[in-house]
Amino acid sequence: MSIISLRISSEEDKLIRDYAKTKGISISDLVREAVMEKIEDDIDINIYTEAMKEHEENPQDISFDEMMEELDLND
Questions:
Q1: pLDDT, mean over the chain
Q2: Residue 39: CB atoms within 10 Å
Q3: What is the DSSP letter of 58?
Q4: Which is it for the CA torsion 53, 56, 60, 62, positive or negative?
Q5: What is the distance of C-alpha 23 from the center of its chain?
């Protein structure tokens, strides 16, 4: 397991410690979850941006019913 250290102000330290305490989790868990969520959000934004770019270059629209059929989700 690796250790990552960071420099924060005393006000940020207090806020982080108080928040973790109210949530009943360790500071390590809080920071790990926050960083992983940020990374996942950035990945999602990049995927969306790339999909929109592809759509703008080659727009292909289908109806909701066509999508359901294509995904084999019809009742």
A1: 95
A2: 10
A3: S
A4: positive
A5: 20
At residue 36, the 3 state secondary structure works out as helix
Mean pLDDT for the stretch of residues 8-37: 98
Q: For the whole model, what pTM was predicted?
A: 0.71
Q: Of 2, 38, 25, 1, which is closest to residue 16 (Cα–Cα)?
A: 25
The tally of domains found in the chain comes to 1
Containing domain of residue 33, as a range? Answer: 28-75
CA distances to 21, 35, 38 from 66, in Å: 50, 38, 34
Instruction: Quote the DSSP letter at residue 71.
Output: T
Q: Is residue 16 part of a domain?
A: no
Tokens for 51?
């999909």
